[in-house]
Amino acid sequence: MQNLPLVTSLVGAFGLALVFGYLAERYFRMPALVGYLLSGVFVQFFPWLPPVDRSVTEQLAEVGVMLLMVGVGLHFSVRDLLAVKGVALPGALLQMLLIILLGALFAWGFWDWGAGSATLFGLTLSCASTVVVTKALEMAKLTNAPEGRVAMGWLIVQDLVTVIILVLLPPFASVMLSSGPVDGRAIVGNVLSTLAGVALFAFLMLGGGRRIIPFILKRVAMTGSRELFTLAVLALALGIAYAAGVFFNVSYALGAFLAGMVMRESRYAKRAATNALPLQDAFSVLFFVSVGMMLDWHIFMEDPYEILLIVAIILCGTTSVSFGLVLLLRWPLKTAFTVAASLAQIGEFSYIVAGQGIALGLADSKVMSLIVGASILTIALNPFVFRLIPLLTNRFVVRWSWARHAASRAIPTIGHDEEPATAKPLRRGGEAIVIGMDERVPGVVESLIERKFPVVLISPERESDYDVDLSRETIAFLTGDPTDPMLLVQARITSAAVLVVTGESVAKSRHIAKLASDLNPGLPVVIRTEHFDSEEAFADLSNVTVVSDTIATSFCLAAAAADAAEKPKKPKTEGLEEDEDPKEGIADTFRNAYPRIVRGLRRRGRAE
Fold it and tell me: Which residue, 243, 162, 234, 161, is CA-closest to 205?
């Protein structure tokens, strides 16, 4: 097996990551990311496992970085950033600058590090983990709240600045490591040449790439092959990232980020993100495992105080700076606490910056061990920091008048020339409430409108990725978490005629159905699931009708075939009668057959 280092590395890394990730999530209530890092730390303690080759893992981790940056680019929205630019742009820039100075001065003054190492140390402390914050906001149900949107906008600015830092690190390292007098012209020329390469690459990507890449994705998507489409996404992302490094002297990370940004311009952006997600997750795991392998676990015993001091800088320094900046920019107290909690950790970009700095000779491997050790602790503590937000908000409001004033501030209008996320609901009763934002929603909405139902559409996203005309008088659009009872009340669920849930998990759909039953007893609820046996989860809710994809597709096909076979032959030029509906027979057949088929499948399942 020594001749197959790739295979043994994948088996060992994935196996340990699975075990440690599961233990972290299941028993310690920590993000799985902590488990992935620890699996890299402890890989040397399990000699009976297939050997994990560090050089191979580092190459796979480079692919993980590229796919991670493609994901950032695919989810990067200029519209979302502009919506919170008043707080995210100045706040993130000032916060990063202050933390870089704080970290650099701390390392230079207390640890007597050189200027290059101290600056690199400050840079690594200035950027939080987008992966961790996204998960934390989701767990706290703040993703679509104004506070969550400000936090994500703040992180988008951090990501963009970090990408620029990665571009400027090589010329900075050449200046810091040069012997003899510093040539100012050479420095400026080096920086300008680097920026010129970045600018040329960005121009080509945002100019020609915006036309070529969507065209390629469209042509491949027309083949109907999921495998080919996924292959096209990966080939474009990795190929562009590689070309950026070879021809323009631009980092792979920046090339992958711009590739993701350009793909977002395509109508197939959501499909690209969905198809690439499994591979992105897998290679990202290898990236975190490789980072864990760079940590010398002895540092926890040899330099525990240094790690604790770094954790203190992050938990106290970064949070205090971001908290104060949000309040100075006149946003509410809860927003300040949410942003501060989001930034109370460091993650993947810190590893990337530290790794590039070490490769350039700015620091030694000890810096990576310190950063990874502090990162593990701060990421593990981050869920507990989020749980402190309600407690701290109440304590501050009770004790200080300035906190009461800050808590009572109105949230500034988010967006530009757009309605707030809580759009006005329709004023008449009998609405059909539709929850979800997937490819089924346009058809459901149009059919309900044809049947004279006013529709209230609830989506976790700010705008539709599909063709739904939200400007019509018969449609109201609300953004937020559908498990929030206040949002359902705003959607007029107490006077609604029916509730349709199209794209949620079984557990979340059940939670929504129970909330709806509490707010409007007897309200008919229609829930779409993937499998017919999911209906058992709603057995105790008499007002719920479950429609599964498998049965719906099968019997719509069967009903259409039966209608086509029984319909009299007509010439192709002959039109339909005035009152004839070609779909009416299918709908009636499906409506009558569905319950009977479900019972039959259940009996078959019990018999098997």
Answer: 243
CB of 229 closer than 8 Å to CB of 221: yes
What is d(CA 381, CA 375) in angstroms, rounded to the nearest whole number? 10
CA dist., res. 367 & res. 352, Å (int): 12
What are the backbone angles phi and psi of residue 539, rounded to the nearest 5°? -60, -30
* Residue 297 three-state SS: coil
Task: Give the pLDDT confidence score for residue 5 in this predicted structure.
Answer: 85
Supply 159's token pair.
């990501």
DSSP state at residue 413: P
- The three-class DSSP label of residue 484 is coil
DSSP 533: G
User: 147: exposed, middle or buried (C-beta count within 10 Å: 0-12, 13-18, 19+)?
Assistant: buried
Give the residue carrying structure tokens 């105790």.
Answer: 540
DSSP 205: I
Residues written for the chain: 608
Q: Can you tell me the distance from the alpha carbon of 307 to that of 37, in angstroms, rounded to the nearest whole number? A: 16
Identity at 368, one-letter amino acid code: M
295: Cβ–Cβ under 8 A, 6 or more apart, which residues? 37, 40, 41, 368, 369, 372, 373
Question: What string of DSSP letters covers 88-116?
Answer: HHHHHHHHHHHHHHHHHHHHHHHS---HH
* Cα–Cα distance, 268 to 277 (Å, whole number): 14
Edge-to-edge order in the sheet of strand 525-529: 475-479, 455-459, 432-435, 498-501, 525-529, 544-548
Rounded Cα gap, residues 339 and 354, in angstroms: 24
Q: What is the pLDDT of residues 444-498, one digit of tens each?
A: 888 888 888 888 888 876 554 555 666 677 788 887 778 777 678 778 888 889 9
Do residues 314 and 127 lie in contact, with contact meaning Cβ atoms separated by under 8 Å? no
Question: How many angstroms separate the most distant Cα atoms in the chain?
Answer: 94
pTM comes to 0.64
**Residue 607's pLDDT is what?**
53
Cα angle for residues 23, 7, 259 (degrees, 5° grid):
80
Residues of the chain with pLDDT under 50: 1, 415-427, 464, 572-583, 608
Using CA atoms, how far residue 411 sits from 153, 337, 406, 427, 600, in Å, is 15, 14, 11, 25, 54
The reported pLDDT for the residue numbered 579 is 47
d(C-alpha 133, C-alpha 382), whole Å: 9
CA separation for the pair 15, 8 (Å, rounded): 10
Amino acid at 103: G
